[in-house]
Amino acid sequence: xxxxxxxxxxxxxxxxWGHLVSDSSLTELHxxxxxxxxxxxxxxxxxxxxPIARYDALVAAGAVPVTNRELVRALQQxxxxxxxxxxxxxx
Length: 91
What we know:
Helix content is 30%, strand content 24%. The chain is of the alpha+beta class. Strands 1, 2, 3, 4 and 5 form a 5-stranded mixed beta sheet that branches. The longest helix has 11 residues.
């Protein structure tokens, strides 16, 4: 398993956010997140949202930096991607 991280570009809550995904296993993704004290509330069906302040530490812990396109492509190829149409609607 490889954990991938893209550069944070999504603004919200006074910071910018990136994504942390696995190329093969949600179980291992959750384990990596737990080991690195990423709260479970940051999980969004197929990825964790992570703030820019955590980027360097996550890379140092083993997350592999990739572009956002590479991240999406790896998620799709793994079969773990949850498409927008399949996501629950937020009210």
